[in-house]
Design brief:
Elements: H1 6-38, H2 45-66, H3 71-79
Helix pairs in contact: 1-2
Function: Component of the MICOS complex, a large protein complex of the mitochondrial inner membrane that plays crucial roles in the maintenance of crista junctions, inner membrane architecture, and formation of contact sites to the outer membrane.
Subunit structure: Component of the mitochondrial contact site and cristae organizing system (MICOS) complex.
Main location: mitochondrion
Length: 84
């Protein structure tokens, strides 16, 4: 089986980030709309808060996905004293 090319992995990460952020924003919109209609007398701030929270969560997940997961492990291994 052929290994994945780096640009394919990057493309998959971008697609996953866009979809994840979109889903979280849509969920925030739905929950904010529900709270706006039921609890807050049709005010608009719960909707904006829900969408903003969803965007922030999606952005945070994307940021973690794009960071190199092995960087911390490599730093620890380089600093560890060599055993004899």
């Amino acid at each position: 089986m052929a290994s994945k090319r780096s640009e394919d992995e990057y493309g998959e990460k971008v697609n996953r980030a866009i979809v994840d952020t979109g889903v979280k924003m849509a969920t925030g919109l739905a929950i904010g709309s529900l709270f706006s209609l039921v609890l807050f007398k049709r005010r608009s701030w719960p909707i904006a808060f829900g969408v903003g929270t969803g965007f922030g969560m999606g952005y945070s997940n994307a940021e973690n996905d794009f960071q190199n997961k092995n960087a911390a492990l490599l730093k620890r291994l380089q600093k560890a004293p060599a055993s004899s």
